[in-house]
Write a structure and sequence with these properties.
By secondary structure, the chain is mostly helical. It has nine helices and no strands.
Length: 233
């Protein structure tokens, strides 16, 4: 698959993902009547379901990363060329902002609006580290053991992460940046982005180091090798 087609898939997939995330958060906020639990439930199920569908649709084209942290991990593990990581990230970020604009158009919001929702502090940053760490482990672990179920495992993890983290489990630098441009409940203030993105990238790095170590081939001691292959010196 050519790089241009893979980048188009990443941009379109990320745009649709953000349309789902921001659109469902907006709809849930308007329809839940102030019940935060119902709103979060609706947003989490819609976001995970949309992500599952998009991974299934685009995985054979670009790998369906839709996330610079996933792209970094894939390159580190040898799943793609390092030279493709920056184009992938650029496509993801551009797509993410397009998705925010699409969601706003559907709900009569301004194309872009500065976010006012504060998301900062040690608990939020630790939550983003854990959310991204777990996401990379799920993707990489399932891709090695049962690749066919990876999209479903990722969707299941995202639903749970919406609930068990204090940060909303953004776990995606492109998504985080784009959500600075929405004044809806899905937003994050621009000044809070650095902490979120730093935590996400650290979580991705830690998970990649761990999963690479866990799945590295074990060295067989020389005496065991000779016992199982007596013909070899």
């Amino acid at each position: 698959m050519t790089l241009a087609r893979r980048l188009a898939a990443e941009a379109l997939g990320t745009a649709l993902l953000l349309a789902v995330v921001v659109g469902s958060a907006t709809a849930a906020d308007r329809l839940a009547g102030g019940n935060a639990a119902i709103a979060l439930f609706a947003n989490s199920v819609a976001s995970a379901s949309g992500l599952l569908a998009l991974i299934l649709a685009f995985s054979t084209v670009s790998g369906a990363h839709f996330n610079p942290a996933v792209t970094l991990s894939e390159a580190w593990q040898g799943g793609m060329r390092w030279s493709d990581t920056l184009p992938y990230a650029a496509a993801q970020v551009c797509g993410a902002f397009a998705g925010v604009a699409a969601a706003h158009a559907m709900f009569g919001e301004p194309v872009f609006a500065a976010a006012v929702h504060a998301r900062t502090g040690a608990a939020q940053w630790w939550s983003e580290f854990v959310a991204t760490f777990g996401l990379i482990l799920v993707i990489s672990g399932c891709a090695r053991s049962r690749p066919a179920i990876t999209p479903f495992a990722v969707a299941a993890y995202i639903v749970s992460a919406y609930w068990f983290t204090a940060s909303g489990a953004f776990a995606n630098p492109a998504l985080t940046l784009a959500r600075t441009a929405t004044g809806t409940v899905a937003g994050i203030r621009l000044e809070d982005v650095t902490g979120y993105v730093a935590a996400q990238m650290l979580g991705a790095i830690a998970a990649t180091v761990l999963i690479t170590w866990l799945h590295s081939p074990a060295k067989i001691p020389a005496e065991m090798h000779r016992a199982s292959h007596p013909a070899n010196p």
